[in-house]
Amino acid sequence: MGDYSHDSLGMKLEMGGDLLRRQFDPTAHDLDANFRLTRFADLKGRGCKVPQDVLNKLVGSLQQDYTSHDDQFMHMTIPRIGIGLDCSVTPLRHGGLCLVQTTDFFYPIVDDPYMMGKIACANVLSDLYAMGVIECDNMLMLLAVSTKMTEKERDVVIPLIMRGFKDSALEAGTSVTGGQSVVNPWCTIGGVASTVCNPNDYIVPDNAVVGDVLVLTKPLGTQVAVNAHQWLEQPERWNRIKLVVSEEDVRKAYHRAMDSMARLNRTASRLMHKYNAHGATDITGFGLLGHAQTLASHQKNEVSFVIHNLPVIAKMAAVAKACGNMFQLLQGHSAETSGGLLICLPREQAAAYCKDIEKQEGYQAWIIGIVEKGNRTARIIDKPRVIEVPAKE
């Protein structure tokens, strides 16, 4: 299906309609009532992510390969940043500017195509926001159409995904000017986000000091919520959790998860500058602990992160517990998609940060841990405090 230009993409995205503002109903589009977008992500037991230890080895070899080329940048005052971090930061040859870039894509995790597009775009942008970059100059869309889709399914679902991606980009103050589309056994959606900026426009995530606190800007439990929602149609799995959660609870959690994943981390990123953040990362596929460990490992100072509190979408901690060790939510290993920012903030600034973001967005942020002297690792205490989000209906 090849490359597409801005003009052709715009033509494909010119879809109006109230249908975008309502929950996706397959029958409203003349699709089978049992159509589920998430079925086009069936990996037959294979994981969607390269294991973190394997990825770290691959990243290490890349880092070594690039070290020999760094001499060409020695005359520049901006360092090369990127391997193993959320974004790559490349010094440009002109005017002391740098190019900040990131890319990501994944499989459908919700059944609403429009929301899936919004989530995919928010997830791509989140890497920029994690480094304090609040302006995105351009986005590209990466899209794989499943070979298992019928022509009718493709013609309904793909434009909705693209429209959701585009609308999220517009909300972020940027635009989608091109990309790449292919056919593939599985449906995938993602993109590339790029910006040109000054060095003071981004926050290198390596300045945590002893006494800082850790703030999280979105609740955990998105993977648990989307899985529990799928299990409503799988009696053998639903029977495992129905004693701890009702169908209504699951549907509420699913919609909360969708709204959370589609919400941009842009305000959270902007406030990092106001409150003198010492570094951040976004919580995605490797879970809270995996990303906290990566962030800790990049610190200049000899520090470690200790996490005491876990904000979790309401009822999802109970669901995770009922599933045994399947999710490992309270151990910090449960994958998240388009999660919040984990930010190292000066202790005296953190409460004001949380108050400010709630005032601006209407959503809470939480102080979840501390930075102490250590050997650049992260851990969650044995019995962390679970904070139900929301605390009450």
From TrEMBL:
Domain PurM-like N-terminal: 86-191
Record's keyword terms, sorted: ATP-binding, Kinase, Nucleotide-binding, Selenium, Transferase
GO MF: ATP binding; selenide, water dikinase activity
Record carries keyword ATP-binding: yes
SUPFAM superfamilies: PurM C-terminal domain-like (SSF56042), PurM N-terminal domain-like (SSF55326)
A cellular component annotation (GO) from this entry: cytoplasm
An annotated GO BP: selenocysteine biosynthetic process
Annotated PurM-like C-terminal domain residues: 210-380
Protein name, UniProt field: Selenide, water dikinase
Organism for this UniProt entry: Chironomus riparius
